[in-house]
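Thread: quick sanity check before group meeting

JM: Hey all, I'm pulling together slides for Thursday and realized we never actually wrote out the predicted structure for the chain we discussed last week. Dropping the sequence here so it's in one place. If anyone has concerns about the input, flag it before I start.
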Amino acid sequence: MYGLSFMIRNGQQKKFFEYPFTFANPIILQQKVSEILAERPVLHETFDLINLIYHNRLNALVPADFFKPELAKDLLAQQIKLQENDYVNFSFIESLQAFNLYVPYHYFEDAFLKNNFKRLLVKHSATHFFENINTIKNQTQDLPVFEVFLNIFSGDFQIAVYKNETLQVYNHFEYSNTDEFLYYLFFILETLDVKQHQSLLYILGTDSQNELLKHIHLFNDNIKVIPGLNPSQIYNHF
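JM (edit): ok, ran it. Output follows.
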């Protein structure tokens, strides 16, 4: 959404570096990656697998019963504004029995990345989010009535709310300050009538020292911080 982040895992060595910029369109990305490859020789090494994760709000979930590949663009266009030349990709989320439809930078992938990185696995961050949620749920016993999952980044967050293990809502918000973050969060919780004594909030993507958590604690103490799920957070644990 805001630039490029690279996480490299090679045996016991781990590297993480970021290149933020204001707006990441395909042309800017292609130019920046050319510069980054020249600057970082480590990116020319041979990798077993390259994971490319798009993190933006250009996606929507569609239940499998209503999905047809040939209608993917029409289905996504009902949720977000698309350009005529936009390409739509999708991935199946087994735990939801739903497809995540999203807009990749198709030209960026085909014309550049695949020429530099031959083994490329592409997904959207929402798919990654729900894969992490499924892992957490499978490791949790005595699930509460409501489970609220927050995937927090600097400037945006994803939220998924389950009631009796059934997904009620997924959304992705941008925020510029704590008040905006709290507004979006508690608007969702109030709309779904999530009661504190019936709920558990899982916090992904940050740590217990995040200033936002201090404010969430004022409204709900039932919080569990899950470490090491986003690259920037993993880096903090090196």
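AS: nice. The chain has two domains: 1-137, 140-236. Residues 26-39 form the longest helix (14 residues).
JM: adding both to the slides.
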